[in-house]
Amino acid sequence: MSTAYSHLSHLECSREGTRGPRYDADVVQGTSQVGAPLLARYDLDAVAASVSPAEIATRAPDLWRYHELLPVRDPASVVTLGEGMTPLLPLPRHGERLGVPRLLMKDEGLVPTGAFKARGAAVGVSRAAELGVRGVAMPTNGNAGAAWASYAARAGIGALIAMPVDAPEITRRECVVAGAELYLVDGLIGDAGRLVGAAVGEREGYQDTSTLKEPYRIEGKKTMGLEIAEQLGWRFPDVLLYPTGGGVGIIAIAKAMRELKELGWVTGDLPRLVAVQATGCAPIVDAYDAGLDESTAPADAHTIAFGITVPKALGDFLVLDAVRSTGGTAIAVTDDELLAAQHQLARDEGTWICPEGGACFAAVGQLRESGWLDGSEEVVVLNTGTGLIYPDTVAVDVPTLPKDGAIPGPLR
Ligand SMILES: *Cc1c(COP(=O)(O)O)cnc(C)c1O
Fold this sequence. Notes:
Blueprint: E1 8-13, E2 22-23, E3 38-42, H1 44-50, H2 53-56, E4 88-90, H3 92-98, E5 103-107, H4 117-130, E6 135-139, H5 143-155, E7 158-164, H6 169-177, E8 181-185, H7 189-200, E9 206-208, H8 217-231, E10 239-243, H9 248-263, E11 272-278, H10 283-290, H11 316-325, E12 329-333, H12 335-349, H13 355-369, E13 379-383
Parallel strand pairs: 5-13, 6-7, 6-9, 7-8, 10-11, 10-13, 11-12
Antiparallel strand pairs: 1-2, 1-3, 4-5
Bound molecules: pyridoxal-5'-phosphate.
Residues 115, 117, 143-144, 243-249, 307-308, 354, 356, 384-385 line the site of pyridoxal-5'-phosphate.
């Protein structure tokens, strides 16, 4: 019986799969020879022989409890700020309102830096530093940069970050306070990516850790899928909705659930995976509707749900495959709809979520109305971050009283 901390075996091209070469997982890698994301593969027989769900249940409540299924080889390489094992909250009042009484929310607003990006950063930075990387470089819509800057500081390595000027303002401050080298770009995330890609080669020991251009961010985000299964008693929900930008989270959750099935820890079908976007930037939804395997960047991408403003995702084909192979769907909602859903959820359940999460609740309502969801199904919404990152999503229009004034009588 092997007691390795990780049972990572090799990397595989996400396009070529087992037909393509095996890539060495113990050197710094970018994309595959055909330019596609690389996926980490594990010796799952060894995992099954060395650990059980019952043993995992005794471990600390963070994402490292799944370390056999993560790429970090040496426990001493783990860079952590306490990420993972976020609540899976029942939402009875809001579920009743939407006609989906078995509605649950996986709330990623509670991780360090306030968005689920901390998961990808914790695992990605840990593994990069373990392999000798001296600095990480990436474009971001804000939240990923804040997370990677924070974990890079924790690891004692550098961070070079570029983000659109329109990205949430607080995420700039998070990068600056953690000592990152930060640039604002008058453009979208793709423009920031071109600038970073051109600069990274000039910095000794830096790695381009753009979305899906290194293999381990997916592995960190995979833990959302592992946790959901564990929190449900090692089973899957019927449906899972995910606010989709670069698509890493939905790809990663599908990967997690397939690994759990292969391990024999969970049986039954994967949940129907729903990719949710905003109508102002919905390339995955457009491709899904058109029956295509890849997306085309829309002109003038714009939505208040900034984390999902990704006009062209490197892993678009993987998102579309995750959706189609699970019998899921792709749906876009307007900014007005996602903000209304965000506000209604806060009134119903007392939780201020990010606008990206709001998009998923708006989508639940629409899918229930169309009959795609039936009222008996167990539905999990992934809320990817806290509303605190987006203070401008709530207008405050209340009276200011003079100090010798009086509060008016009860409102009618
Ligand atoms: C990055 C981000 C997303 C999109 O995540 P992907 O996994 O890249 O699709 C959604 N919501 C928030 C808050 C984000 O920061």
